[in-house]
Structure formats: C-alpha cells, structure tokens
Amino acid sequence: MAAPKSVRVDLETPQCERGIGKVILAPDSHDLIDGVVVQPYALWPDDRGYFLEVARIRQGLAAQFPMESTQVSAALSYPGTIKAFHFHRHQTDLWVPVAGALQIALVDLRKQSPTYGARNTMYVGSLRPWQILVPPGIGHGYKVIGTEAAVLVYVTNRLYDPQDEGRIPYDHPGICYDWETQHK
Questions:
Q1: Helix, strand, coil: what percent of the chain each, to 5?
Q2: Pairing relation of β-strands 119-125 and 22-23?
Q3: pTM for the whole thing?
Q4: What is the pLDDT of residues 142-182, one digit of tens each?
C-alpha cells in the first residue's frame, strides 16, 4: 500500500456526539477512516521474549517513505496517560505499538474527505499487534490502558517539523471523544 502523497489539507474540527466512534476489530474494516491503513505485524515469541520488525525500508506500509527524510522515534507512556490529539498537514505517520496496550483514537479533520468527522477506536499493542498508517489531516492520539507502560514506535515520512503539527485538546468539545472506560 502506497503512503499518501503530501497534499494541501483543509482542516476543520467536526462537531461529534459524545462517544468513541467506530471500534475497529479487523484490519480490513469498512468503518476505517478514508486513507487509514491497518496491517498486522509479525511477532516471533520464544522463551526469552519476542522479536518483531517495525518496518522495512521500501516495503510494507512505509514503502513510499523517502529514505532522506524518514524518521523513526519511540515513546514510552505510563498507564492512564492520554496523549491526544495532534495532526499533521503533510506528514504521514506509521504507528507500531510494540509493548503494553493502547486505546488509539482517530478523527478525520479533512473537510473534503468522505469520512469527515468520523472517529475510529482501536485497541492495539502486545495482544493485537497492528501497525497503523495515519495520513495527513487525521487527528490522532492514544490512552495507555492496563497496568503496564506502553511503547509506541512511529515511523514518519518527514523529519519532525513543528510547523507541520497541530494540537487539539484531548477533551475538545467538537471531537467529544469519551476517554472513560466503556464497561462493555
């Protein structure tokens, strides 16, 4: 799957009802926000732990990421931490949760998108090893769930540029994302 090309993104915060949007239970879900791609990654466990490949240059979801500007970073976050929301105007993110458990929240901020205002929730990490391609214009964030710290490795198609990044409070009334435990 090719990474989205960098295009001008006309962004606007939607007015959503309180909730978490569509919970994505399969990588090929028809409820995915337009342009978001989900793919399981291989995990090789043994009696010492496990091994996984985060990304291969010129292959997989990061196949179109340019060699000269691809950046790989990692974030460790403690249980209960919420890091949300932020978005990029040009940058594509490839998120690979490698330890712990995350509740990932996505919201489509692209006014001209067929899924404008849609929200997706994914529960990923050690028990559901998915990588998630997040194109420009998609607000994204996460909450660490469970009792362990979580590690998120992310590969981006551009070097960090603070001018490309926008921030929206985790409790923005237009997005109205419900970060509380759902008890379902």
A1: 5, 40, 55
A2: parallel
A3: 0.91
A4: 999 999 999 999 999 999 999 999 999 999 999 999 999 87
